[in-house]
Design a protein that fits this description.
- With 234 residues, the chain is of the alpha/beta class.
- It has a single domain, classed as Vaccinia Virus protein VP39 (Rossmann fold), CATH 3.40.50.
- Helix content is 44%, strand content 19%.
- It has ten helices and seven strands.
- Helix 7 runs antiparallel to helix 8.
- It is globular.
- The mean pLDDT is 95.
- Bound molecules: S-adenosylmethionine.
- The site of S-adenosylmethionine (SAM) has 19 residues, from helix 1 and helix 2.
- S-adenosylmethionine (SAM) binds next to helix 1 and helix 2.
């Protein structure tokens, strides 16, 4: 099993419905904070179930939702059917997006599941699909010095503040026994320090700032705001 397969099955990274909802709210609000204009064409890449899609769709001109997991896309299709400015994309749909057609791409809490070569391809594709000066929001990037213990503590804190502490404790115990742990042992998570992410984005034609707040409940993770540089901007 790979990380992609993991997300195409029932999994328990959200400890209960309340956690999932509060998480979706944080992501939707965090993404919207960076939408450059009300008519912007936005892509959420690796969007998951995107429970906040309605909120985001109301704040941009068009919203494309891409996820690699077919089961996730099926849920998205059902939950966004009434939203006229939302499109669900599979890999062919993403490839078919015209170059220089997007104002913003957000990718939140995905990089840790992606290897080096795929990430390089992704960043090149993002650069191609963004308009000149377009914005790439890379959220919830895991730094190398963030231990699983600190991640667990941040979840418990989120659970305490969000009223799902007991479920969070149970969720951590389930995760410790789940495929998540064995996949983490087998493949690890991809992690980046701030200088590494800045260098990588520069290599792929983006100038970059670190956002003051991470999009996610753990503020030890990082969000980067990367602009497609003018140099051979298409
Ligand atoms: C932790 S979830 C994050 C979902 C959403 N972005 C959020 O922050 O709530 C990771 C998502 O990335 C997707 N994913 C996993 N591997 C991917 C890849 N190689 N390319 C794009 N998406 C991927 C999974 O299907 C899953 O929905």
């Amino acid at each position: 099993m790979t990380w992609r397969d993991f997300f195409d099955r029932d999994h328990s990274i959200y400890v209960n419905a309340r956690h999932k909802l509060l998480h979706a709210e944080i992501v939707a609000k965090g993404v919207c904070a960076h939408i450059p204009s009300p008519d912007a064409r936005v892509l959420d890449y690796g969007c998951g179930e995107a429970l906040g899609a309605r909120y985001v769709a109301a704040r941009c001109g068009a919203l494309c939702l891409f996820d690699t997991a077919p089961s996730v896309r099926a849920k998205l299709a059902a939950s966004t059917v009434a939203l006229s400015n939302v499109r669900i994309l599979d890999e062919a749909g993403f490839d078919a997006l015209p170059d220089a057609s997007l104002d913003m791409i957000a990718i939140v809490s995905v990089l840790q599941y992606v290897g080096e070569a795929e990430l390089a391809r992704m960043f090149d594709n993002f650069r191609a699909k963004l308009k000149a000066g377009g914005l790439l929001v890379v959220g919830d990037v895991v730094p190398p010095d963030l231990s699983p213990l600190e991640d667990a503590r941040a979840l418990l804190d989120f659970g305490w503040r969000g009223g799902f502490l007991i479920a969070a404790v149970g969720g951590l115990a389930r995760t410790a026994l789940s495929d998540y742990r064995s996949l983490r042992e087998k493949y690890g998570l991809s992690t980046y320090s701030e200088p590494e992410m800045r260098a990588l984005l520069a290599e792929h034609g983006f100038s970059c700032d670190r956002a003051p707040a991470n999009i996610g409940h753990n503020q030890k993770r990082m969000t980067f705001l990367a602009r497609k540089t003018a140099l051979d901007a298409s």
